[in-house]
Design a protein that fits this description.
By secondary structure, the chain is α/β, with parallel strands linked by helices. Helices cover about 20% and strands about 30% of the residues. The chain starts with a strand and ends with a strand. About 35% of the residues are buried. Pfam families: RibD_C. It comes from Nocardioides panacis.
Length: about 190
């Protein structure tokens, strides 16, 4: 089984979006450099951020998101973001009626089932879990091996929390990596068991 990584860009005060589900400047670092991060050429980062981010992205086999993220992004028009092979959507509702059943999206009920399905699809590669409510639920269930954060120098004051509504303490090890990019600080922690 591949490791399970909780991941997102985050404000200094711990939010992945504002109260209106808008990321504001959280993704500005993805267009602040001159090194293309993917084939589209739309994402350009500093060389330091590229050296940290690209190898990680190349290891992701599946991503787990909540239905809210799926709806807000319109399911990325059926194309998983960042070249990821599969997206597992945690939802209590069926897939949208007009949804292309051939798209590599899988709709499941519950975070445990989502992680199990994602690990099956990832084939030993990393399972990435989007931070927020679903990510916090996966952490609370004891299924997260690592936390990655791209900390952006902005304070939101309120909004959607990185760890969702986690209401218990979870210890992380000291950071494995602390890398300063352009307008971003990349952090990686292992979750203590």
């Amino acid at each position: 089984m591949g490791k399970v990584v909780l991941y997102s860009s985050v404000s200094v005060d711990g939010f992945v979006a504002d109260q209106d589900d808008q990321p504001g400047p959280l993704f500005d670092w993805l267009s602040s450099g001159d090194v293309p991060l993917d084939e589209s050429g739309e994402l350009k980062v500093s060389q330091t951020s590229y050296d940290y981010t690209r190898p990680y992205w190349d290891q992701i086999g599946a991503t787990v998101v909540g239905r809210r993220v799926f709806d807000l992004t319109d399911g990325w028009d059926g194309q998983p973001p960042g070249g990821i092979d599969h997206v597992v959507v945690v939802t209590h509702r069926p897939m949208p009626e007009s949804w292309d059943a051939e798209a590599p999206f899988h709709f499941v009920d519950g975070v445990e089932a989502a992680v199990t399905k994602a690990q099956e699809l990832a084939g030993g590669r990393i399972v990435e879990v989007a931070a927020g409510d679903v990510g916090g639920q996966v952490l609370a269930a004891g299924l997260v091996d690592e936390v990655r954060m791209d900390v952006v120098p902005v304070v939101f004051g309120s909004g959607k929390r990185y760890f969702g509504s986690v209401d218990a303490q979870h210890l992380l090890d000291d950071p494995d990596e602390v890398i300063q990019g352009d307008r971003v600080l990349h952090l990686r922690y292992r979750v203590r068991r």
